[in-house]
Structures are given as structure tokens and as C-alpha cells.
Amino acid sequence: MLQPEKPGPHEANMGSPGSRLVTRENQLFVKATDRPQSDEHTDKIFSVQVSDEATKQLIAPRGPFGELRMSPNGNAVSFVGSREDGPEPHDLQFLAVNGHATRNLTGASLDRP
Fold first, then answer.
1. CA distances to 2, 38, 56, 83 from 27, in Å
2. Measuring CA to CA, which of 74, 82, 84, 90 is 20 to 30 A from 108?
3. What distance lies between CA 41 and its chain's CA centroid?
4. Do 10 and 2 meet the contact criterion of CB atoms below 8 Å apart?
5. Pick from 16, 23, 70, 24: which is nearest to 43 by CA?
6. Residue 51 to residues 25, 41, 55, Cα–Cα distance (Å)
């Protein structure tokens, strides 16, 4: 269990490559997979309530992604992800925690197909 020194978001690496945990008070955001042996991009973003361990899958982005971050108020997460299936993550994605779809904040402004 992470012991925050002060209120606010905190982050930790979870040991395996690409695993990510972001915390805020009673809520965790986790990048994880249920198929670690797969060579496909199977990571998903989950929210976990610490009080009752309720887990909710927020999204399963297509392709690789990383740099999971949480907004200061805990109502949104952002990450750097791929537009499609890869090959590399390069677009800043935004997801409201109560939303169902990401919003690509940089895709339209970049000169790429």
C-alpha cells in the first residue's frame, strides 16, 4: 500500500514493464492486463475503489499506450496512446472517469496519417 506524504495524486511502478498505478485518496487508476503472455497490446485502464475493492474497467485502448496520469481532482485520466494499433504511442488522450470514450487532444494538429 502506498503511503502518501501529502494529499494529491501519487504514482508508482508496479514491477512489470508498462504496469502503472496512480492513486488519489480512496481511488486507484491502474494500467494492467489479464493476458501478460500475449504479444498483442492487451493493457487496459481500470479504476479501483480502495474502500470496497470495486474494480471498473474504464477503457481498453487500441495499440500501445503509457504515461498514465490523473487530473488533480481525480475526475479524469490522460495517457499517451496510439491512434490505431501502433506502432508507437504519440497522441495525448483524455478520458473522463465517468465517460466511455477517449478524446484525442493532439491528433488533429499533427502532420501524420
1. 12, 28, 11, 28
2. 74
3. 14
4. yes
5. 16
6. 10, 30, 11
> What pTM, to 2 d.p., does this model score?
0.70
Q: Which three cell numbers stand for residue 89?
A: 504511442
Q: If you search the block for the grid coordinates 491528433, which residue do you land on?
A: 107
Give residue-wise pLDDT tens across range 11-53.
444 444 445 556 667 788 888 887 878 777 788 998 888 889 8
Beta strands in the chain (DSSP E): 10-13, 20-24, 27-32, 44-49, 55-59, 65-70, 76-81, 91-96, 103-104
Q: Where are the domains of the chain?
A: 13-109
Task: Measure the CA–CA gap between 39 and 54, rounded to whole angstroms.
Answer: 28
CATH annotation of 13-109: 2.40.10
Task: Give the count of beta carbons closer than 10 Å to the beta carbon of residue 9.
Answer: 17
